[in-house]
Specification:
Elements: H1 2-21, H2 29-39, H3 45-57, E1 62-66, E2 69-73, E3 80-84, E4 90-93, H4 99-109, E5 119-122, H5 125-136
Bound molecules: zinc ion (2 copies).
């Protein structure tokens, strides 16, 4: 009985991560909670946390930390993220580091490395356009 209820709750949480992630979003637990509550108003935040944790363990979803906050990822496959410093947008990047770079990191740390996922910070195309158009406007000479 308990197992069945857990399965239903887990599925509702998985669907919330996938529907939020469909637009490229990397929702926080609070975002997932808000989404899931539309369909399952009785679900508690603690249940959502437990379900998220179980789904990460089962590799149904991914988890990454951005500015020290756990963010959930509809894609469980290892990938990198680019994060906009201006608006906080997060996008997925599926690309591997050159094997030589991984070998150097492995040698430098004495770790046997099998996967990597890196967060890069910068400025997204939208914010670049905004800042360059702002820069293009001549400063008022009063
Ligand atoms: Zn931006
Ligand atoms: Zn991602």
């Amino acid at each position: 009985m308990k197992r069945t209820r857990n399965t239903v709750q887990r599925r509702a949480v998985l669907e919330a991560v996938r529907s939020l992630g469909a637009s490229g979003a990397h929702p926080t637990a609070a975002d997932v909670f808000a989404e899931v509550r539309c369909h399952c108003p009785h679900l508690s935040l603690a249940t959502v946390y437990r379900a998220l944790h179980a789904l990460v363990e089962q590799r149904e979803i991914g988890e990454t930390r951005i500015e020290n906050v756990a963010r959930y990822d509809a894609s469980p496959d290892p990938h990198h993220h680019v994060i906009c410093r201006s608006c906080g947008a997060v996008a997925d990047v599926f690309a591997s580091l050159p094997p030589l770079a991984v070998r150097r990191l492995s040698e430098a740390s004495s770790f046997a490395l099998d996967t990597h996922a890196i967060n890069f910070n910068g400025t997204c195309p939208g914010c670049q356009a905004t800042s360059s158009s702002a820069a293009a406007v001549p400063a008022s000479a009063a």
